[in-house]
Amino acid sequence: MATTGSTDAGKRARQAQGGDRALHLTPQERAARGKAARAEVPRGSHGEWEPSPTRADPIELLEQQATSRVPELVPIRYGRMMVSPFTFYRGAAYVMAADLAATPRSGLMVQACGDAHLSNFGFFGSPERNLVFDINDFDETLTGPWEWDVKRLAASLAIAGRDNGFGEKIRRRIVTATVAAYRTSMRGFAEMRNLDVWYAHENAEQIIEQIRPLIDAKRLTVLEQNLAKMRTKDSMQAFSKLTHVVDGEPRIISDPPLIVPIEELVNDRGREELLEEIRGLLRTYRRTLVSDRKHLLESFRFVHLARKVVGVGSVGTRAWIALMLGRDDTDPLFLQVKEAQASVFEPFLRKSGYENRGQRVVAGQRLMQSASDIFLGWERVTGIDGQQRDFYFRQLRDWKGSVEPGVMQPKGMEIYGRLCAWTLARAHARSGDRIAIASYLGTGGAFDAAIAEFSERYADQTERDHQALVQAVHDGRVEAQTGL
Question: What's the 3-state SS for the chain?
Answer without folding.
Answer: CCCCCCCHHHHHHHHHHCCCCCCCCCHHHHHHHHHHHHHHCCHHHHHCCCCCCCCCCHHHHHHHHHCCCCHHHHHHHHHHHHCCHHHHHHHCHHHHHHHHCCCCCCCCEEEECCCCCHHHEEEEECCCCCEEEEECCCCCCEEEEHHHHHHHHHHHHHHHHHHCCCCHHHHHHHHHHHHHHHHHHHHHHHCCCHHHHHHCCEEHHHHHHHHHHHCCHHHHHHHHHHHHHHCCCCHHHHHHHHEEEECCEEEECCECCCEEEHHHCCCHHHHHHHHHHHHHHHHHHHHHCCHHHHHHHCCCEEEEEEEECCCCCCECECEEEEEEECCCCCCEEEEEEEEECCCCCCCCCCCCCCCCHHHHHHHHHHHHCCCCCCCCEEEEEECCCCCEEEEEEEECCCCCECCCHHHCCHHHHHHHHHHHHHHHHHHHHHHCCHHHHHHHHCCCCHHHHHHHHHHHHHHHHHHHHHHHHHHHHHCCCCCCCCCC
